[in-house]
Write a structure and sequence with these properties.
alpha/beta; 10 helices; binds phosphoric acid mono(formamide)ester
């Protein structure tokens, strides 16, 4: 059974069966990553361009590795050092890359909606690797995979997204997919960082961690995006940490183990204390590993329309 769409642009409106298909397929590829030889042949002969117009460590390397693990040929493109600096448009850049017989394009862009635009102007499959503050669908899916791996289910889990919801594409993709899959979702952060009307997406809103921490199974802690001017939304990092920083003392109030997630990169001792980030309930590095398997599943399903 193929995915309903030939692109992965976002998780808003993605059918439950498609989320389930990606997560199930990722289980097979996660097993491949534990083998001595971590490479399988299904995308032999396919060429995938990774177009990054914004910085990335995890997502770019994870896609590159997923493509190599599937035996695809990968083509790297970073806006810095390219002819974008000479004024070449996104459409011309992408069409020129596609002319080299590229089958799929993975794109991160600072502009919300850029991958949707790209999908209209090229024939290759397009995967959104993060568009502005809009969506980060592969991060959302790897987060769900990690929750399912840790808790054995998604339906009925209470997941609280903490911090800068306003600027967070990760929050939006998590909310769409988690509500589709039947999780209970809440957000917690300063009023200035919670978008007005977010409750219409089916989430509960909290402004004090202590009001919600004893009810949650998972805290998905978001980065304060200082590069998007997030520092203007609260008085100081010290005050942010006092109100929303996840510390051991705060977690003890939960009275039960709470799974700690973070998409990275972490501002250590701001969003999370170092001992919590590296502690026994943190699955942050499992998220990174699972990201490779989930991206292998997405590439595979889009390229072949089949299950392995
Ligand atoms: N989680 C995430 O998107 O990290 P990068 O910005 O390093 O890709």
């Amino acid at each position: 059974m193929p995915l309903k769409s030939r692109h992965l642009l976002g998780l808003q409106g993605m059918p439950r069966e498609d989320v389930e298909l990606i997560l199930e397929t990722a289980v097979s590829f996660r097993e491949v990553l534990d083998r001595p030889i971590k490479k399988v042949p299904p995308l032999q002969g396919k060429t995938i361009a990774n177009m990054f117009f914004e910085n990335s460590t995890r997502t770019r390397l994870s896609f590159e590795l997923a493509e190599r693990r599937l035996s695809a040929d990968e083509l790297g493109f970073q806006a810095g050092g390219s002819s974008v600096s000479k004024g070449e448009s996104l459409k011309d850049t992408a069409r020129n890359i596609e002319a080299m017989k590229v089958d799929m394009v993975v794109m991160r862009h600072w502009a919300a909606g850029a991958p949707h635009y790209l999908a209209d102007v090229i024939d290759a499959n397009v995967i959104n690797a993060g568009d502005g503050a809009h969506e980060h669908p592969t991060q959302g899916l790897l987060d769900l995979f990690t929750m399912q791996e840790k808790h054995g289910r998604i339906a009925g889990l209470h997941v609280c997204l903490v911090g800068d919801i306003l600027h967070s594409r990760v929050a939006r993709s998590n909310i769409y997919a988690l509500t589709t899959m039947g999780a209970e979702v809440s957000v917690c952060g300063p009023a200035t960082m919670i978008p007005r009307g977010i409750d219409r997406l089916g989430v509960s809103v909290f402004h004090h961690l202590d009001d919600v921490i004893d009810r949650v199974d998972v805290l998905n802690v978001l980065r304060i995006q200082l590069e998007r001017d997030a520092g203007r939304f609260f008085p100081s990092l010290r005050e942010y940490r006092q109100s929303y920083g996840i510390t051991r003392a705060r977690l003890e109030k939960a009275g039960k183990p709470v799974t700690i997630m973070h998409p990275g990169p972490i501002n250590r001792d701001v969003e999370l204390s170092a001992d919590v980030a590296d502690g026994e309930h943190s699955v942050i590095l499992q998220q990174v590993l699972n990201g490779v398997a989930v991206r292998m599943a997405i590439l595979y399903l889009l390229a072949t329309g089949n299950q392995p």
